[in-house]
Structure formats: C-alpha cells, structure tokens
Design brief:
alpha/beta, two-stranded antiparallel sheet, 41% helix, globular, 11 helices
Length: 316
C-alpha cells in the first residue's frame, strides 16, 4: 500500500521513522537492529536516507593530487529492498538531486520498479555534493526537476525520450518542507510557493524538517492551507541526545530550540542527562501534536533509536 494510502486509511495517527544505511563494510544487521527495536509500534513505513559519493583529494606518488570518488554507505535502493522483503513494511528510499546524475536516477528507478519498491521521498539533498565534478546539465538542481523525471518515468518516457511500457505500479512520492524556512529561501512566502509547486507536480504528502516548537508547525500548516495546499503534512521529530546539539542542530538544520528546552540542556552535565531531557521534551511535543490531529509522526532515528523507542512507548 502506498504511503499516502496508509496515511489516509489509518484509523489512528501513524508511526514512521527514518534510518541511515550502515557505513561501508558494516552488515545490514545494523539496520535490522534499529527496526527490531521499533517494530512493536507498528511502523507504517520506513524511510532510508541516500548518500552520494564524495570526492576526496589523494596524494599521488609523483606529488600530484588526484580527486577520488569515495562512497561511504550503501545505496538506498538495496537497503529499501532488503527491508521490504524481510519485514513486509513499506520502504521509502530517498532519491536526491544534486549528488546524482539524471542517468543514475533513471537506473535507480529501473531497479526500484523491478524490486517492487514504489514509494519515494524526493529531495534536493545536501548542498555538499558532486555537482562540481559533473558537467552542467547532467544533474537536477531542484526537487521539482527530479519530480518531472519521475513523472515522465511513470508515463513510460526515458531520459533520451524513448518510450517503454509504463510501470504497472507508478511511483508515488512525498517531498520535504520547512516550517522554519529553507536556509536558501529568500523568505517564507517563497518557501510556501515552492511547497505548493511540489504538490502541483504530484507530491502526495509533505514531511517536515525537524522542529522543536510546535507553534511554528501549526503556523506553517495554516499558511499552506490558506494557499489551498491540502495534502497531509507529517511532522518530523528528532529527539536531542547530546549536549552539543544545543548549538549543532540550529547550525546544521536551521531549527530553533525554544528557550525552555535550551535552558534545560544548558543545565545538563552529561549526554545521558541531555538524552533524558530530549526524550521528555519530545514526548510533550508529540502529545500536543497528537491532540491537534496530525496525520502521523515521523522520527529521525540517527543516533537516537533508543530515545525514539522511549518516546513511542509513552505515546502509542
């Protein structure tokens, strides 16, 4: 069942989470361990993050420097297929723009269709990417461009404009949104406009970047609805687990930390104390969101799967 159908058909607020593929050389069991830890809460779908190759400079014997592509994690296609086949839970691989060529994206779609994985999360991806190493025109710049490629694939149109039999089950997808504005958006109105464009292009739902102040989520959804954007908006939840996240999360993800939470974290003397504060804050945050009828809660589990389990036990 497609994610949007799972959201619409569920008689209760759904639980979902995102996992990070293991580092190169590690076994898939590391992924299974996280899923097994959270499986009792009936996740309706599991997202798998995507990581492009990175170019690193390697000194050569002659003293020159050569850039070498290094891939640190397996692709989301393989991990999604493994999860779906083992657990029967809908897997949602991330497909990202600027770290992959359009040809690589087409190969991924071909493989996913063959493997029976039909749900995607389409993202522009991290600003640190391989764009500088790929000739202009070979990669997508925006998520809306990526949407068009997926839409054309669903119609049976390849990158070179040749025709093929359309997939029996077309891909469906969600996209990201930013209650506190994307870091590159000139203003919130612009951000809302592009969220609307993504929905017009075919996105079935939106999932938010992490946030810690529910008021910002409610205000964002209200502004979307005022624009006629009616698709589900899934809150993305990330529990704080380390003391240094008080400064790291706002810097990396542009997510404000409310002063009430910041004050508690400043008093923490250890990461264990910060983790406990993070769990308590997320439980209160989630209960408030549930009371206000959100369609689901989506948890970011990277380095936080134990915390997510504690939160889920308290709210489901």
């Amino acid at each position: 069942m497609k994610v949007i159908d799972l959201i619409n058909a569920s008689g209760r607020m759904i639980f979902s989470f995102e996992i990070l593929p293991p580092l190169k050389g590690n076994h898939i069991q590391k992924v299974y361990d996280v899923i097994d830890k959270l499986r009792e809460f009936d996740p309706k779908y599991i997202n798998i993050t995507s990581h492009h190759s990175e170019y690193v400079e390697k000194p050569q014997p002659d003293g020159s420097i050569r850039k070498v592509a290094v891939r640190r994690r397996p692709g989301s296609v393989a991990v999604a297929a493994a999860i779906q086949n083992r657990y029967g839970i809908t897997a949602v691989p991330h497909i990202i723009c600027t770290g992959f060529t359009r040809e690589e994206t087409e190969y991924a779609l071909i493989d996913l269709n063959f493997l029976g994985v039909y749900d995607l999360l389409l993202l522009r991806g991290d600003a640190k990417n391989r764009a500088a190493e790929i000739p202009p025109g070979h990669f997508h710049v925006h998520a809306t461009d990526l949407q068009q490629q997926v839409n054309r694939f669903n119609q049976g149109i390849a990158l070179d404009d040749t025709r093929f039999d359309p997939p029996e089950t077309p891909f469906s997808y969600g996209v990201a949104c930013y209650p506190e504005k994307h870091e590159e958006a000139p203003n919130m109105e612009s951000d809302l406009f592009y969220a609307g464009e993504k929905v017009k292009n075919g996105a079935g739902y939106l999932v938010t970047q992490m946030f810690f102040d529910n008021a910002k989520y409610y205000a964002f959804v209200e502004r979307l609805r005022a624009r006629g954007i009616t698709v589900p908006v899934i809150p993305g939840i990330k529990p704080v687990v380390f003391t240094n996240q008080l400064t790291v999360l706002p810097k990396v993800f542009r997510a404000d930390i409310p002063e009430a939470l910041a004050a508690e974290l400043r008093r923490c003397k250890s990461d264990d104390e910060a983790k406990a504060v993070g769990v308590e804050w997320s439980i209160l945050q989630c209960k408030d969101l549930m009371a206000n009828g959100v369609p689901g809660l989506h948890f970011y589990t990277f380095l936080a799967s134990d915390s997510v389990r504690q939160i889920a036990k308290a709210i489901y």
